[in-house]
TrEMBL record:
GO terms for biological process: DNA-templated transcription initiation. This is RNA polymerase sigma-70 factor (ECF subfamily). It comes from the Bacteria. PANTHER family: ECF RNA POLYMERASE SIGMA FACTOR SIGI-RELATED, SIGMA 19 FACTOR.
Amino acid sequence: MSDDRAAREPEPSRDVETHRAHLLRLAYRMLGSVAEAEDAVQDGYLRWHDRSREHVDDPRAYLSRTVTRLCLDRLRQARARREVYVGPWLPEPLVEEWSTDAAPLIEQEVSTALMMALERLSPLERVAFILHDIFDMDYDDIAATLERSETACRQLASRARSNVVSARPRFQLAQDEGARLAEAFFEASRSGNATRLQALLTTGAQLHADGGGRRRAARRAIEGADRIGRFFAGMARKGFTARPIWSRRMRIDGLPGILSVEHDGTLQTTAIEPQGGRIRAIYIVRNPDKLRHLEALLPETVAERVSH
């Protein structure tokens, strides 16, 4: 291709790279999986590359529609897989460096509680809700994307909203307060002191641990400060809560948390959801299939000790 022709024609990869961050956010919110989100964006790129773009006025809108439809197909396939998933299912954690200058910890669109609530929705409800309530897309654009009427899309989003309203954060938390609670939980949960741990939790606190059948984890959610305290006390007596090889304070799905390599080499994320100065929920991901993308954050000498 001549230089003049190349200068006149749009470069498909440039369009995708320009909007990649947006497309990955969109796909992750829909799928709850970093790897699947990356695959959906890559498939979107291939479709963009293979089609004529002469009449595409808005590459971002076109790519968003394409990736949304690809995610919808994946969601329908994922429902069957998750019905046989071993233990609680949690989304693959998005991890960010901790910074006192960063945005408020609990962000509505990435909270783990909201991502879990989205799992209760049908694929169409989930997509309509995410596009409208999180990405501020107009209903006429959603209708075009889903190939449904605008009225149907409003109904889908409304049903979804009524199902997830209790999972949407209603407050923000100062960074230093989140750090204090995360560190206090991390220490108390490993000490075996049930009373000390229970004092950090709300009465109806919940523990969700995702091992996916690959790593040791509670097979069901544990509810109540007393039960959670006794659970960690029992783990400590059995030697399962020994000091980790390495740990680092991080933001995990917008929540205060810890990325750690446990004493047995298990890579783990632990995130807490605060409420009124205490902890209302704990989210622990230990399934190695959901954490591979985090190994790049580890020091080389630590990464070598991670078990797979």
